[in-house]
Amino acid sequence: MIESIKIENFRGIKNMEMDDFKRVNLLVGKNNCGKTTLLEAIFLLLGAGNPKLPISTNSARGLHKVDETYWRILFNKMDTDVGIRLEGNFKYPQQYRILNIRPDYSSSSTALIEEKNGDKSLKIEDISSISVPVISGILLWYNRKKENKETGIDYLSGISIDGSNIKERNLQNYVEDLRGIFIRSSNFLSDIGKRFNKIQLSKKTKDILIILKQIEPSLTNLLLGSDDIILCDVGLDKLIPISSLGEGICRLLAIILALYDGNKGIVLIDEIENGLHPSSQEVLWKGIFEIAHQLDIQVFATTHSIECVHSFSLAYNKFIEEHEDERDKDNLRLFRIERKPEDKMRVVKYNNEVLFASLEQGWEVR
Amino acid sequence: MTKKPRTKSDKVSEEQTTTEPHLVYKVKFPIKESVACKSILAVEGQDEVNFFDKLLEYMKIPGVDVKPVGGKDNFKIKVPGLINTPGFDNVEVFAVIRDADNNPQDVFESVKNLLKGEKLTPPQKPGEFSSGTPRVGIFIMPGSSETGMLEDLCLKTVKDHPFMPCVDAFMDCIDKKYKAINEERKIQGENEVKIKIPVKAKAQVFLSAMTETVGSVGLGAKKKYWNFDSEELDDIKQFLSQLKPSD
After folding, report:
1. N or C: which terminus of chain A has fewer CB atoms within 10 Å of its end residue's CB?
2. CB-CB: which of B2, B26, B34 is closest to A360?
3. Which residues of B touch A349 (CB under 8 A)?
4. For residues A25-40, b (16+ Cβ closer than 10 Å) or e, as one string?
């Protein structure tokens, strides 16, 4: 569980601090205010020992051509002279993480990162048609300070392009004790089969069905078919792929499966409302509050939709109505991120009561 | 901290309501525009909005957005909600007007502390404005550290109205009737009954005598039934005059 974060020179954010994170956090704000960047910053901190994660975040933004711009895009205003610095205060397990990212100038080339079923491979472009880039990769200095220790341990990792290969400098004898899952706004089905397999093996398919049936009442069973395709029984003669029921139910399933897979970790969901009717969004939020409570998961999601904000507020209030022990825990926050002149950022926080009152009043919160 | 949401038994009014069986929730669409005015006046309810909109119009002070934030129960969550609304950071003047009820000093202190908690700079005394950003003013009605509410102020403006002796006589008569009823109830061992807020009743009696009866002091203001020229409004007018935003 992350409690606070500091972000410096990462993508569109020059400098931003946020605190008071709760179990379930919804991020709103105008386009390009930094919502997705915040999710990415948390994700990088969670996997600070994994040098491939910056590549994953670039892929999620549709960036596949690895040239100098590919690396520069990670840095604020593409200025690699000023390094990226991310700091996160975590509890359970208690630790403070600092991740510094700097450009690596040691070698250079241009490549395309191809992603298939979650695995990444490298395809070098025709060398005659490209210019020679300067930055070949990034170096990651990571410090993890645990509990009450005065100083933390430093780790150095990196990733770069060397000729036709991705060259990784991985951490030795490093054990990651935090877990994070990032659900993209599109192309979110990559791990769905693997995650469903875990659910099937742990006999939790029924739990998933209870949630999905609220949207698709004819759904009576889910099974894993070949090639990690999830099949569903909707009372027809044959099982059909879940994807044939539409994007909304797949999105809902992908999020629910990620939550079950994110045991005691952090699940980050970009544009959570994508493909979901407002009535389904309330089902989703109810499921999120329930599962996050059961499995001790922290959730961060972004949205532009006011219906989604309403569903978030309504579902939480129903959830605390049904769970007396949760009523005084103050486990919800809505954060609005605002971009101000001169690279300033403003973060506005809403707790449950203030959010409920504002929505009831008809006041804008996004 | 977390407050139980409203249930069916709670009072709800206008606008669209979800059909959920166990949670009644008013959803107002479309969502109103973000805070767009440089000057915001937060008052208790819609009645106060009607009254102050009219008084500001009379005083020729345009550009003030009068927002209802509820009385003592809702105030603590609605004021932070208003302050959080997009665009509030561009506000130059923010004022709060609350009823004193039985304790003007306590109400002033609670408003002051709430605003401080929201990182605003409140004034040191009621009726004044701070020099913070935004400038913040607090007025406790009816003013002059008196107990009471908006209805007291309204009635003071018409204290010389020819109908007032009739209104006073009516209230006296009702008061005597209640005394008689309560003597009987005392003998029967029953609790005393009374008009909960006599000044609201008195204002209603006055309004009921107007050519077109209206049900609230705010609507009374719209109908020009209160005397906006009365010197009884000098303090509140002086306060409101400071709400004028810069051009």
Report:
1. C
2. B26
3. 84
4. bbbbbeeebbbbbbbb
Q: What pLDDT does B23 receive?
A: 46
List the one residue out of B102, B104, B103, B129 whose CA is nearest residue B115.
Answer: B129
Domain shared by B98 and B88, yes or no = yes
Backbone φ and ψ of A54, nearest 5°: -60, -35
Helix (H, G, I), strand (E, B) or coil at A66: strand
| B27 and A CB contact within 8 Å | yes
State which residue of chain A sits closest to B83, comparing Cα positions.
Answer: A348
The DSSP output letter for A75 is B
Q: Please name the residue of chain A whose CA is at the shortest distance from the CA of residue B29.
A: A362
Based on the fold, state whether residues B107 and B159 are members of the same structural domain: no
Residue B8 binned pLDDT confidence (cut-offs 50, 70, 90)? very low
B20–A310 CB contact, under 8 Å: no
Q: Which residue from B minimizes the CA distance to A321?
A: B4
What's the rounded Cα separation, in Å, for the pair A291 and A30?
Answer: 29
pLDDT in tens, B79-115: 999 999 999 999 999 999 999 999 999 999 999 999 9
Q: For residue B68, which of B124, B14, B128, B148 has the smallest C-alpha distance?
A: B14
Q: Per CATH, the architecture of A2-179+262-360 is what?
A: 3-Layer(aba) Sandwich (3.40)
Chain A residues near residue B74 by CB distance under 8 angstroms: 357
**SS3 (DSSP) at A210:** helix
Q: For residue A16, list its beta bridge partners.
A: A7
Cβ distance B15 to A362 less than 8 Å, yes or no, reads yes
Nearest CA in chain B to A328: B2
Chain B CB contacts of A354 under 8 Å are 77, 80-81, 84
Asked if residue B247 is part of any domain, the answer here is no
Nearest CB to B32; choose among A310, A317, A362 = A362
% chain A with pLDDT above 70: 92
Q: N- to C-terminal Cα distance for chain A?
A: 25
Strands A137-146, A95-104: pairing kind: antiparallel
Residue to mutate among A363, A365, A366, with most B CBs inside 10 A, is: A363
* ipTM score over 0.85, yes or no: no
Count of structural domains, chain B: 3
Whether chain A has a CB inside 8 Å of the CB on B32: the answer is yes
High-pLDDT (> 90) share of chain A, %: 70
Number of neighbours of residue A15 by Cβ within 10 angstroms: 14
Residue B203 structural domain: 150-231
* Structural element, H or E, at residue A253: helix A247-261
What is the longest distance spanned by two Cα atoms in chain B? 67
Dump pLDDT digits (tens) for A154-176.
999 999 877 677 888 888 888 89
Inform me whether the C-beta atom of residue A358 falls under 8 Å from chain B C-beta atoms. Answer: yes
Q: Is B77 on the interface with A (CB under 8 A)?
A: yes
**Is residue B226 located within the same domain as residue B129?**
no
